[in-house]
Amino acid sequence: MAAHRIKYAGDCDRELWDGYVQKHPDASLYHLYGWRNAIHNTYGHATYYLMLTAREREVDARNERGGDSGESILGVLPVVHLKHALFGNCLVSLPFLDSGGILASSRDAEEELLSEVVILGRKIGVSRIELRQERLLESCNDMSAVSNKNLRTPLLVATSSNRVRMLLNLPESAEMLTMSFKSKLRSQIVKPLKEGLTSKTGGTELLDDFYSVFSVNMRDLGSPVHSMKLMRHVLNEFSESSRIVAIYKARKPVAAALVVGFRKVLRNPWASSLRKYSVLGPNMLLYLRVLEHACVNGYQVFDFGRSSPGEGTYKFKEQWGATPAQLYWHYISLDGRLPNPERVGKESFETATRCWQKLPLIVTKIIGPSIRKHISL
Fold it and tell me: What digits encode the pLDDT tens for the residues 261-291?
């Protein structure tokens, strides 16, 4: 027999948490414990890392293992609390990233974690819970699995399925990668090389170069920029599997990406290039170098990141041979108002960006992170 309990994980549980994530077949990079520290240490958001555990009875454990009983994990759910008068009050798993959500060993474990996060959400007074999943969370389609006792308002659920990850299966070597490209793509890659663009791959020593491109590109796109501290914390938390790839015109950085690996998948949380140099094709050289890095380091899949089918970024990734994998973002309403799954987050984002492009770069760098920290997209 086993007694289940929900534990709110702390730093002392990191090894146990990550051990479960590493072994689970459906786990993603964003389930790793390091994201808790990266987000909290950057923005100060409250984080709740729910861990469902089972402790077997002493006698059973001794019979089976010949020793003392211990805890085993049945599921995890990392959530971050975003609270702002203008941008809303919600629990998100995980903000700023493509996925996260519930990772469980069974449907029952999934439902227990879902029940607990609803209880937590009511306790701290959020209006909704957002779970970003890489597979459909069936429990969200059957909220009767969640205790509805003493509810003043019903639980309403909406699911957005208009976002996809763009995935490219990689060959065994960088040479095979180049040979796999169509002639049109190869010609686009040759152009930046002929223009004299160069590249570097490294770690925190390239962070200033990365951020100089990232901050300008975000301003040009009308988006408040993340704090550089977030990228620094990510590089430190995942120092063995994270890299920056940067492209230069002479000594000036004109494109850059921050990539992080997990098991056999290399993911691309952030990448940017300068519009001013787009005619030189720095983006093409950037992704060539990123894909080469992936092949050389034994990754089998490259994740270009999320897109919506038909938009420009989707088509750009598609030309490299990437194919879509559905994302499921579940929105659980705790205030009785059913959210529009295609608009959640966009209103606040649009509010923040209406005049952003007109601001001086130095101003966007100073006030951007204080706004961006409250926008979950």
Answer: 999 999 999 999 999 999 999 999 999 999 9
Q: From CA 329, how far away is CA 377, in angstroms rounded?
A: 11
Tell me the residue type at 358: K
pLDDT at 331 exceeding the cut of 80: yes
SS (H, E, C) the chain: CEEEEEEECCHHHHHHHHHHHHHCCCCCHHHCCHHHHHHHHHHCCEEEEEEEEEEECHHHHHHHHCCCCCEEEEEEEEEEEEEECCCEEEEEECCCCCCCCCEECCHHHHHHHHHHHHHHHHHHCCCEEEEEECCCCHHHHCHHHCCCCCCCCCCEEEEECCCEEEEEECCCCHHHHHHHCCHHHHHHHHHHHHCCCEEEEECHHHHHHHHHHHHHHHHHHCCCCCCHHHHHHHHHHCCCCEEEEEEEECCEEEEEEEEEEECCEEEEEEEEECHHHHHHCHHHHHHHHHHHHHHHCCCCEEEEEEECCCCHHHHHHHCCCCEEEECEEEEEECCCCCCCCCCCCHHHHHHHHCCHHHCCHHHHHHHHHHHHCCCCC
**pTM listed for this prediction:** 0.90
Q: How many CA atoms lie within 13 A of 113 on its CB side?
A: 30
